[in-house]
Amino acid sequence: MNNHLKRIANSYTVAVSVALLSMSALVLPVQAFEGEVQSFFHGDWEAACDNTHTCRAVGYHNPEQKNAAGEYRPVSVIFTRAAGENAKVKGKVKFGALSFGMEAKQTQHNDTITLSINDTYQSVLAPELPAYQEKGMSFSGERELTDNQVSELLKALTMKGRVSIKFGSSAGDEWYLSTKGSTAVLLKMDDFQGLVETPFAIVKKGQASKGIVKPKQAPVISIPAQPIPDTTAADLALVTNADFNQRIRTALNNACDNVPTEDQPLELEIARLTSNKLVVSTMCWSAAYNYGQAVWLVDDDAEIEPVLVTDSAVSYANGVIDEFMRGRGVGDCLSARRYIWNGSEFVLADSYTTGACREIAPGGAWYIPTTVSTVINGVDPAAGIDCESKQAYSTQGMVKCAQRELASLEWQMSEQLAEIERFSHAEYNTKADKSREAAAAIAQAQQAWRTFSKSECKAQQLSAAEGSMSLPLFVGCQVDLTQKRLQQLQLTKQSLMY
Fold this sequence. Notes:
Keywords: Signal. Residues 1-32 form the signal peptide. With 498 residues, the protein is an alpha+beta fold. Helix content is 31%, strand content 25%. A hairpin with a 7-residue loop joins β16 (291-299) and β17 (307-313). α1 (3-24) crosses α8 (470-497), α6 packs parallel to α8 and α7 (432-463) packs antiparallel against α8. The longest helix has 33 residues, at 395-427.
């Protein structure tokens, strides 16, 4: 949770307490920031930092280390630390759900698992956390490590000499975490965040205090309030226009390997973006289990050259370009990027990987972002405010930052609703009446939720004591209920997908 949300959550709790007592007697400029993305790989470990300067270190099993039966059990640990001095290191562990060349094995939800370090330190792990979604992907099977478990693991992973880190289940299964490369990767994470030789380092501690990297606010992307124009018949007719085709063919020759010969027609997809600009895409390259489409921003003025946005897209729709790649055929490691139209250009909104190809889970072990952003529709409610700074400490700053978070949740919710409608339509693709009924039911349910949330938050606001906490209480309530609604919609989408 962001700092401003923690502050408003605290205010929310205080205001609720006050209310209960009274009953018994509250656009920043966008860049890609690719230059700030830092990563490092060594041995069985890797580190990656995103554009807010939050870093993650991930370790895996050693695939060459096998048990008596000639098997190895996949396991992975992730450590996450925000930038800044005295930032807490958080940790989670996950056990493999895939196994190649043998029967798949995975832990049961109720298995008791014990962490053992050098057979001297032992500690029972917490139960599995609930499954969750990030960027449309599902993640499950994660167990949160306690502060003590994180501390003992970090000591062991940076210890000289032979170290054994074992996880054992009540069913008799064992997983071994590799230390190969751990010290180098954790040192590099310290380096990325300017913590080497400071009291806050994991590896090389000291008394220095200069050069510590500060946390940075995620860039805000404001999507234009005006809707994207409809693609006209005249726009679509450009597919067969000789001059237009030659214009795109020239751009294709400059960007792609997969170029049809002159006697072969181009397979173009055309969509209107603004009153004078089109988005044009076509296949650019293909490989064994990945492919990429080139996407250009094309001006209606033929004198202006098409602008290449990416050569690795898998889809474009409504001002959003997505890239998605598998690291190998089995799909146990992925990477993705998303570009969003902000009214003047396509900007990189997010990018992530799911870690190394280590047979941890379908799709990959973890959500490891390298670029993050806050996407909202229309004007930024907290324009000009750095919500990671002291600007957010005042009541006004706190409320505005929470309103920005609420606007982002609203945008995420609109995306989920669009996906639900698409999957519902696919389910009834031969039954138009059923499809319309499903769409109407979705819209009705959403309207009912909006009525409920507005009424609930207004009631809580009115029940609070008068003063500066009234508005924070109302906005905090909205954020809380919208987060819960978003989770409900994600579960609904999952039920339609599988």
